[in-house]
Amino acid sequence: MRAGLTWRKLSALVSVLLLAGCGTSTDRSSPDDAALHQDIAAGRAGAEVTLDGTLAADPIQVGTHEHLLVRTPAGDSIEVDHNTTLAPAVPAHAGDQVIVHGLLYIDPGPRAGVHCTHAHTSHGCPLPGWIEFAGGYYE
Q1: Which helix (H) or strand (E) holds 33?
Q2: Residue 87 and residue 137: Cα distance in Å, rounded?
Q3: What is the distance of C-alpha 77 from the center of its chain?
Q4: Residue 113 near residue 79, CB atoms below 8 Å
Q5: Phi, psi (deg, nearest 5) at residue 134
Q6: Strand 136-138 to strand 111-115: parallel, antiparallel, or no bridges (unpaired)?
Q7: Does the model's pTM come out above 0.70?
Q8: Tens of pLDDT along 18-70?
Q9: Which of 131, 128, 107 is nearest to 119 (CA)?
Q10: Does residue 5 lie within any of the structural domains?
Q11: What is the CATH number of the domain that holds 96?
């Protein structure tokens, strides 16, 4: 091994590189509405998605979740289930633009939605998500 590069330094460098390759709540993916549309058409529930769109109505609080109905430029209507016990409510209204990052779910009907829009991860939500509105992040 070269002088100056110890195992400890090499181990730290590898750790940094591995962490750089992993998504974090500060890793802000660009919206990809075409990929979302393809995931819905293929029935890929559980896919990690980032979408943008317009709120079709004011958010509605249902128990511990805020429901936001988002219409994407591709024409999809997506229900966003945002857990307000794990993340702050989004102070948006009908007509506002949002960007959403989370996991796709598909209910019978078919009705597509996104959940896991919070930084707190769990067995059911292994990846951090977020909602961007008016320059702020609700995660």
Answers
A1: helix 33-41
A2: 10
A3: 16
A4: yes
A5: 50, 40
A6: unpaired
A7: yes
A8: 333 333 334 577 999 999 999 999 999 999 999 999 999 999 999 999 999 99
A9: 128
A10: no
A11: 2.40.50.140
Determine if residue 95 is left, alpha or beta; phi over 0 gives left, psi from -120 to 50 gives alpha, anything else beta: left
Instruction: Tell me the residue range of the domain where 112 lies.
Output: 24-138
Closest CA to 139 of 84, 64, 91: 84
List the one residue out of 49, 41, 42 whose CA is nearest residue 23. Answer: 49
3-class secondary structure, 62: strand
Question: What is the tally of helices (H) and strands (E) in the chain?
Answer: 2, 8
Q: Which long-range contacts (CB under 8 A, 24 or more apart) does 120-128 make?
A: 120/86, 120/87, 127/23, 127/48, 127/103, 128/23, 128/24, 128/25
Residue 28 domain-assigned (yes or no): yes
Please provide the size of the chain in residues.
139
Q: How many domains does the chain have?
A: 1
Lookup: tokens for 124: 């059911």
Whether 9 is in a domain gets the answer no
In a domain, 17, yes or no: no
pLDDT digits (tens, 9 = 90+) for 71-93: 999 999 999 999 999 999 999 99
